[in-house]
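Rotation project, supervised by the postdoc (A.L.). Task for the rotation student: set up a whole-complex structure prediction and record inputs and outputs verbatim in this book. Inputs entered:
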Amino acid sequence: MKFKKKFVKKIKKTETKKTKSLPEEKKVKTYSLVRGMHDILPKEEKYWKKIFHVAEGLAGFFQFGRVETPLLEEVGLFVRSIGKGTDVVDKEMYTFEDVDGSKVCMRPEATASIARSYIMNGMWNVPQPVKLWYWGPMFRHDRPQAGRYREFFQAGFETLGNADPAADAEIILMTYNLYKDLGIPVEIHINSIGNKEERERYKEELTNYYRSKRGYLCADCKARLNRNPLRLLDCKESDCQPIKEEAPKIIDWLGAESNAHFTKVLEYLDELGIPYNLRHTLVRGLDYYNNTVFEVYTVAGEGGAQSALGGGGRYDGLIEIMGGRATPAVGVALGIDRAVLAWKQYNEQNKLVISGPDYDIFFAQLGEESKRVSLRLLDGLRKSGLKIGFNLGKNSLKNQMELANNFKVPFVIILGQKEVQDKTAIVRDMESGVQEVVDQKKLEAVIKKKLGKL
RNA sequence: GUGGCCAUAGUUUAAUGGUAGAACUGCGGGUUGUGGUCCCGCUAGCGAGGGUUCGAUUCCCUCUGGUCACCCCA
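Outputs recorded:
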């Protein structure tokens, strides 16, 4: 990191020098990011690493195998699964022609790829259910905002081949635990949208209801009435709220089977002590969902439109639509960028610091001779498990002490000419300033003892 | 995709129709074997293009990017 920074600086310096010395020369072009793309810098890494670690741990315990599907897929895969008429497919896909003329796109989500993989790899021939999880970048050409990027990371858990409500509960439990373990306060919103027939009947009912109120609707809602009636329930226009309140609820249109499934899911959640909000206006934007749908929202931060951290539900029809055997499935997709954002906001609000000192100790070297053996000594300590800070680019001890101080390490190893000769090293206690000469062979043991790691 | 707001060093910012000052960070120094404070120095900037003007960082337009709301979603 230090090295990289320096290196960049150097390059920049020579560039500006060049342009300055040649007055008529054009300026060196600088690059900006492609819209909606962003760098994830080392500074952020502790958040990403921790989230990945927790997700991986959950996947491990609940026996989800990691699957890595390609970033590039056939366009048709998503058109078929997510559905024509959805924004994701119609407006937001990065679609282009491959070199051979075939139409491909950057995946906007992973569930369709998982379904494809399940079918292609004949996963119905292994003991069911098949539980898979993933972590990787997705691409949607949406208008960027804080917490909404065109390249963004999602993690997801998918259970294929299990129709039991317990599978739904397991997925929701994992979702809830992920944020709970991180310390991000969240709430789960849940609803059931029944099966296709129930939904169609409900849509009709809803449309009829809204038609009767047509005169009182906002312009957006009038458009939604024809285009995507379920979206009427999402309207935030204050004039439409009373109409929304009175609107028929999908839950009242569920058949016995769907109802029983949903009831069981809720029973599981009660048993698990997971708080949830029944939200009858919750309908998800992708076509493949049925029965259970849920979303997870952070209650940290300003709220804002980007407070949805993830969402998922059941998609019992998807595998069949995609050409496989009828296979019930349930899953969740979690927005990692948003989790990072929410977590950072939450920590800031509550003045929490998530990392301790960067290193256990700092290694300082002084003089040519010492520098030469330093790397060797450091490498010797590599397997000790100690986190050691060092900077062989610095030559003055003063500078290195300053660094050690910035890193807030409790101890510094000092290796000078004299110590090289004697095959010793100095261990300095930064708190008290007390120094001790230690045989190089005993260095690891002495430090570990001081750090209480033995 | 629609609309509003914004754009000065790495970061946070100041001022100005005559090309910019500061703080923090970074690098170096305060006699080359010792940190936290203090002092000094150095590096580094007007997002891009066009227009108005004798002259634009400043005014206007376009683009780009950010941000917010909508749409939608993670």
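Student's summary: Confidence is low (pLDDT under 50) at residues 1-26 of chain A.
Supervisor addendum: The two ends of chain A are 30 Å apart (CA to CA).
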